[in-house]
Amino acid sequence: MKASAFAYARASSVANALDLLAAHGDRAKVLSGGQSLMPAMNLRLISPELIVDIGELAELRGIAVKDGILTIGSLTRHVELLRSPEIAAHAPLLAEAIAHVAHPAIRNRGTIGGSLAHADPASELPACMLALGATVVVRGSGGERRIAAEEFFTGIYETVLSSQELLVAVELPIAQGDSVHFFHEFARRHGDYAIVGLAAQARVKDGTFRSLRLGFFAVGDRPLLARAAAKLIGCAVTPAVLAKAAQALDGELDPQEDQQASPAMRRHLAKVLLARGVAALLGRPDLNEGGTA
């Protein structure tokens, strides 16, 4: 199957792209890397009248560190994140997660902004944004606004981004000296969509969590920043404490059934990842005894 007929415009600047989106509204779609948009169009899941190609806008590409903030332009490709010394030094969780995104051909074209705007609940990068405390920067005709990652994703393939706005950048606080991270996903094969995954960022002192952010994916209609993490902060984590956190996590999950897994299987795997992640972050393998999938 091929896409239905559409018009095409290559934006010459962010301002030009916003003008095009303002003129066409819901009838237009933005093309960045195209790794999600083009398959959806070919399957006729969506049929935009106009494609606004922003792929050549150099102002939306690049990685910079300033005043404790790591800023990533929305058109920065996955492969650039994977190879970036700034990402490796200041957001190592993101560097590790990127290696799990699809396959090299996809990573060579896909962009961070496209992945976040697409908002696939089984995608690695939205969950990483939650774990890292990211701010999503969007621009429209009325100016720029900054949105906390946990407020950005609203449902399956849905965000607060309006049809007349562009996602222009992501801002991440740089990792502190006592920061540790964990990333793991269960998938049929490396590069397949995750069955369940966890991206976690923490600060640890004297064997205790000073902070802990757990970003689960493929456990509901959007990435989940687990409130259950609060039960593990500022206390001695014992198997009993971890069990209570797992019980609290179970109440937050709303997994869907598909050809890969049942809701019960996803609930089980999420709790396995919780135990595995906490054990790894604290350097406490005893907390993961028996925690196999």
List the helices and strands and how they pair.
Blueprint lengths: L6 E4 L3 H11 L3 E4 L5 H6 L7 E4 L9 E4 L2 E5 L4 H6 L1 H6 L1 H7 L5 H6 L2 H7 L5 H9 L2 E6 L2 E6 H4 E3 L2 E2 L6 E8 L5 E8 L9 E10 L2 E10 L6 E2 L13 H14 L10 H20 L11
Parallel strand pairs: 1-3, 2-3
Antiparallel strand pairs: 4-5, 5-10, 6-7, 6-10, 8-9, 11-12, 12-13, 13-14
Describe the structure.
There is one protein chain. The protein has a 5-stranded antiparallel sheet with strand order 4-5-10-6-7. Strands 11-12-13-14 form a 4-stranded antiparallel sheet, sandwiched between helices. Strands 1-3-2 form a 3-stranded parallel sheet, with helices on one face. With 293 residues, it is of the alpha+beta class. The model has no long low-confidence stretch (mean pLDDT 94). The two termini are 39 Å apart. It contains 11 helices and 14 strands. It has helices spanning 14-24, 37-42, 78-83, 85-90, 92-98, 104-109, 112-118, 124-132, 149-152, 239-252, 263-282, and strands at residues 7-10, 28-31, 50-53, 63-66, 69-73, 135-140, 143-148, 153-155, 158-159, 166-173, 179-186, 196-205, 208-217, 224-225. It has 3 domains: 7-53, Uridine Diphospho-n-acetylenolpyruvylglucosamine Reductase, domain 2 (2-Layer Sandwich), CATH 3.30.43; 58-173, Uridine Diphospho-n-acetylenolpyruvylglucosamine Reductase, domain 3 (2-Layer Sandwich), CATH 3.30.465; 179-288, CO dehydrogenase flavoprotein, C-terminal domain (Enolase-like, domain 1), CATH 3.30.390. Strand 2, helix 2 and strand 3 form a beta-alpha-beta unit. Helices cover 33% and strands 26% of the residues.
